Fold:
Amino acid sequence: MNAKRGFDYSNDNASNIHGPDKKTPVIFYMRKKESPALVIPGHLRFNLGKTEYEVDLVGEQHVGEKGLVGKYSKDGHVDLQIGAEAAADRSGYVVTIQTPDKDSGLILSDKKMYVVPAEGYVQRLTVVVPVSVELRKYIYVKSREGHVYSRIDASLRAKAKGIYFNGDAWSNPSGARNVDYDPELYSQEVTRRNKEKKQKIAEREETLKLFYKK
Structure:
């Protein structure tokens, strides 16, 4: 799955340079951008060994070992649980992905969509990844009883000593299925969160001042 995703025109004598051919034109697929929506980005990077990982797709505590998500944040929520074990013949790994929430589920797909599917979700997915193979898939997630929809651009790379999960997650916390990331809206959300945190800190400091004055 190491196919090149772009090409360059060039007069240089380099190898693998694309040459235009009327008989085999290059087709660019265009799409209309979805309406602006707040989509939360996330970056998932971990080595799947004997440890089961939990993922919060919306909160700041994005990834942690089992039992840690939410431990350091009162708002933490487990949207996904991901684990892996070696196949019986040691030829690869069996990866299990599931969501613990009621009325939630997962879809594994080769197709990249900016509006996630409305139907077809299952509670648990199992993926077999042979050693020396990198598997690229899109994982669509319905979590928190259908109140959060996400797309994960996932890469599962298996080696003799372990399997590595790399993924970029895009989550819409509003309950809408639009996961077309808008950097401007997200920047505004980060500014709002930071302002809210500073306000809470200032309120706590003011409370302490009043307490010690008594």
